[in-house]
Amino acid sequence: MGNRSKILIALGNEIKRGVASHQCKGDVPRMYVNYLRQRYNMDEWHHASNVNSFICEKNNIILIKPVTSLEKNSGLVIKNILNYLNCEDLKNVCIILPDLYRSIGKFKYKNYTKIYEKLGPDFYNILNSNIINNVLNNNFLQLCIGVSNYPNEVKNGVASTLQECLNDGELKKIFKTFQLADEYFNKKVMNSKVITTNYIHLKEKYPAMEPQKSFRRSTASRRYILDVYRHMYK
């Protein structure tokens, strides 16, 4: 089942039974999969006690919300979920994270997970190292959804920042981001050909999408013209 399915795992704040869900920064990944469930008319959430997670599915899409906080050994949680689903191909897995370094209203898909040695014991370095060490692979898709209101944000610890409630303006930006990311979700996760434009058109159509670092616009023709003028007016 897991090898043919697209699996989206939304990490975030702990889900507490009997407690009303607050719309905090650490809840944004859960909010996104809730949006996808409604958008695609998927089944109701049910609790899988074997992996202590809420799961819903339809056709070849499986959405998962682990109950435990992303700060508590997320690597082992993800490993247990993938074993439970008999998933061996991590290319079909997308892990969704709240990104404290990215502004609210921005998002970015990453084709693989990288550890940034220069950042040292950074929260995301530790989190991603834990995931990679458990699943023994870094070729899973990662969706980072911005939750920072920098430069207005007061720098707090990660735990307290993830528990900060979002105001109405921030919630509007986040739900708009979910809508803008919908077609890109179809292309990146579902491998459909909904979007056929190149990067320039994609950027104009979806301004919330963060630029890919590997993209570089060719300037060869412009450099050639400048060289010609330089020789003409020596």
Structure description:
It holds the Pfam family Pept_tRNA_hydro. By secondary structure, the chain is an alpha/beta fold. It has one domain: Peptidyl-tRNA hydrolase (Rossmann fold, 3-Layer(aba) Sandwich). Helix content is 35%, strand content 18%. It is built from seven helices and seven strands. It has helices at 28-39, 74-84, 123-135, 158-162, 168-188, 199-205, 220-232, and strands spanning 6-10, 46-48, 53-58, 61-66, 93-103, 107-110, 141-148. A seven-stranded mixed β-sheet has the order 2-3-4-1-5-7-6, sandwiched between helices. A hairpin with a 2-residue loop joins β3 and β4. α1 packs across α5. It starts with 5 loop residues before the first strand and ends with a helix. Mean pLDDT is 80; it is low at 193-206 and 228-234.
Q: Outline of this structure?
A:
The chain is built from seven helices and seven strands, in the order βαβββαββαβαααα. With 234 residues, it is α/β, with parallel strands linked by helices.
Note the total helix count: 7
Evaluate the radius of gyration. Answer: 20 Å
- The coarse silhouette is globular
CATH topology: Rossmann fold
Percent range for β-strand residues: 15-25%
The name of the CATH superfamily reads: Peptidyl-tRNA hydrolase
CATH architecture: 3-Layer(aba) Sandwich
Strand line-up across the major sheet = 2-3-4-1-5-7-6
Largest sheet: 7 strands, mixed
User: Alpha-carbon distance between the termini?
Assistant: 69 Å
Relative helix content:
25-40%
Give a count of the beta strands, DSSP E runs of length 2 or more: 7
Order of helices and strands: EHEEEHEEHEHHHH
